[in-house]
Amino acid sequence: MKRIALVALFLYAFAALAQDGPRVLFIGNSYTEVNNLPQMVFNIARSMGSDMTYSSNTPGGCTFQNHCTNQSMELICQGGWDVVVLQEQSQYPSFPQSQVEAEVFPYAERLVDSIYAHNPCAEPMFYMTWGRRDGDQQNAQYFPVLGTYEGMDSMLCLRYTYMAEANDASLCPVGRVWRHLRTNNPDIELYSSDGSHPSVAGTYAAACTFYTLIFHRDPLSIAYNASLDPIDAIAIRNAVRTVVYDNLPSWQRPMPEVGIHLLGNIGSNGVSFGAEPQHADSLHWFFGDGNDTITSSVGDLTMQHTYADSGFYTVTLVASRHCMTDTATITVHIGGTTEPVSIIRVDDNTPSVYPNPASGTITVTVDATAKATLCAADGRQVWHGTVCGSTAIPLHGLPSGIYTLCIGDAVTKVVVK
Fold it and tell me: What single-letter DSSP state applies at residue 196?
C-alpha cells in the first residue's frame, strides 16, 4: 500500500461520519426498551456537554436469531455507526451449553460479522444483562443452576464474556454493576414489580455504564439523576466507577500493540527489522527515506529494506485492526559498507491512544506521569494537561482534522472525526 492510500484511509475515517458525537445503534428487546435506555444514555451525555446520535430496534422478547432477519440487519447494513449494542433475549445466554451453542453463539457471530462488514471502524458492544431477582424458576427444573439469582447471573456473565472475546467486541458489564449494587446497596431497588425488567434505578445503572464505556469518562462527574433520589444516584455512579471506569481495558476489545527491533545487516545499507505485534491484523512499515509504505500481514514478523544513502533514518511500524492503531519507532544509523548498522533510539514508551480516529473523547495510556499538549495543524494548542495511567482527553467542539498529541518526547497523530 502506498503512503497516499493510508492517508486516504484516515481521511475517510473522520470525514465519512461528520457529526459532533458518536452514532450508536441499540439492538435488543424490552430490557433496552423499558424506561428508554438509549434516551437515558443520551440525556447523561448531553448533561455532560457531549453529544450522541442513536437509533434502536427493540421488539419485546427478540433474540439474536430474530435480529439477523429483521430491521436490525437493515440498520446495520446502512453503515455509519460508531457503536452497535447487542442485547440477547434475557434468558437465552444462561441456558445449557449445547443449547446456547446452537441458538445464541452463531447469531451473535453473524451480527458482529455484519457490523464489521458494513461499519469497518465500528465498535460492537455486547450488553451483559442480569439474573432475575429470584432466578429463572421457569427453567430451573431443566437446568438447576438457574434456580437462584446468583446462578443465573453467573451464567449470563460467562456467556456474554465468551461472546465478546470470541467476536472481537467490547462488553458492557451492566450485570456486574447490578451485582455490585445488590451486594453493597441492597436498599436500591433495581427491578420492576415482575422481578425481571429494570426499574428506573436499574436502567440508570445501565445508562451510566454505557456512558462510561462509550465516552471513557468518569461517571462520578455525572450530574443527571434521572428523577432518582440523589443519594441513590451517587451510589449507582460509584458502583459504575468501581466496576467499569477503574477497569476500562478489561471491558473494551483489546487495542493492537506493536514493538520493533533491529535484526541486523543484510548487505550494503541493507537492514532486517523484526516486528512484535499483538491483537493486530495488518502491519504498515515506513522506513524514513521517502519510499512507499509496505503493508504486511501479522504473520510476516521480519522486514528487509535497503537504503540508497548512508545517514540517520526513523523507521515507523503501525499495527492496525478495525481502524485502531498502535505505533512503534526505531531510529537507525546506516553507515554504508564500512560501518555496521546501529540503533540510535528505540521509542518503547509511545503512548497508546484509543480510539483513533475519535470523536468526543480519547483515552491515553502511558507508563508514567507526563505533561501533554494537543495541537491543531496550524500549531495552535487546543488542550494541555497531565496524563497518568489511563487518562481521558476531551475532543468536544474540535473541528474534524488531524491533530498532534505531544506527551514528553513522544508525538502521536490524532484524527478527530
Answer: S
Output the pLDDT for position 8.
Answer: 37
Instruction: Find the largest Cα–Cα distance for the chain.
Output: 82
Q: How far apart are CA 17 and CA 207, in angstroms?
A: 24
pTM of this structure: 0.77
Distance (Å, rounded) from C-alpha 243 to C-alpha 221? 16
| Cell numbers placing 40 | 437515558
Written as one string, the DSSP assignment of 222-241 is: ----TTS-HHHHHHHHHHHH
Nearest to 363 by CA among 355, 372, 373: 355
User: Tell me, what's the pLDDT at 16?
Assistant: 37
Strands (DSSP E) found in 211-369? 257-265, 270-278, 282-286, 294-296, 302-306, 311-321, 324-334, 342-347, 352-354, 361-365
Mean pLDDT for each consecutive 10-residue tract of the chain (417 residues)? 36 40 97 98 95 96 98 97 98 98 98 97 97 97 97 98 97 98 98 98 98 95 96 98 95 92 80 90 91 84 89 89 89 64 50 74 79 80 82 86 78 78
Can you give the pLDDT at residue 378? 67
Please, where are the H alpha helices in 127-199?
Answer: 137-140, 149-166, 174-184
The grid cell for 55 is: 437509533
State which H helix or E strand residue 215 sits in. Answer: helix 200-215
Minimal CA–CA distance to 213: which of 164, 272, 162, 262? Answer: 164
DSSP 61-78: T--HHHHTTSHHHHHHHH
For the chain, domains (ranges, CATH) are 21-251 (3.40.50.1110), 255-348 (2.60.40.10), 351-417 (2.60.40.10)
